[in-house]
Prior knowledge:
The protein has 6 helices and 3 strands; from the N terminus they run H-H-E-H-H-E-H-E-H.
Amino acid sequence: MSENFSDDVLLDWADFLRDYAENWDDHFKQxxxxxxxxxxxxxxxxxxxxxxRKDPMNLAxxxxxxxxxKKADDKTKNTRIKAAEDAGLIKRRSFAELSHEIxxxxxxxxxxxxxxxxxxxxxxxxxxxxSETLSEAMQKLPQK
Length: 144
């Protein structure tokens, strides 16, 4: 349910969102010019969130997370995932290659599935990105 925010608050939020997108670019442009927010934010954040919850995302689910390319074919989606792999941001793992703790949490895994997990580099970048943007939002948004 949306609230009736003042124009000033909405302008602050718009500024924040612009800064947020620029912050993403600052953190991820080093991995190539193709790491656009729409195509990679949902994918990379989804992979990290799933991993932090000890329930890694499988390849099929990851492809559905590429929201900017919902209607794209598998080849296009595979290209984006490969770009993230080549940049050293994610790795493919079979169920047997996942950590013992994650395998225990998942129970009976499917060895036919490929799981995508974040590299320490991605986790570091995402922590920095989320921390910086959250701090900025907390400064700009009014406290209730």
